[in-house]
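Quick note —
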Amino acid sequence: MNRSEYLDNTATTPIDERVLSIITSHLEKTSGNPSSLHTINQLAERVLDESRCKMAEILDAEPSEIIFTSCGSESDNLTLQGGGSACKTGNSKPSPVLTHLGYSKEWALGSLRVSLGKDPTAEEVSHFLDILPTCVKRVREAAI
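Predicted structure written out below.
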């Protein structure tokens, strides 16, 4: 049998039936703009806020850390321009990204996240690579 599989959905990824059902039920109730201050739009804003809270709970994050965008390109640009982050710094919890990728909480807690900013210079990268072994050693010693 000659059968082909189409694996490159890009922007045409089919919507899960459960998600489609929820979206449809909300669109039937209101077509409001959640960013608008008009009364008719308050239901749409409430639904968006509830969705943000549910996603935050699933990802073990704060609702303020959940950013909904209108498309993949907008998400990519937000992340590339430094407006978004997949992991949190200064938090004693394991990274929700790593745990949802299947890594154990212990492994995720032992990971080290670094950022050199949007456009690091060669000197900054070189300096970071010079001090990285010492940083890793200190993190490991602190974990014992």
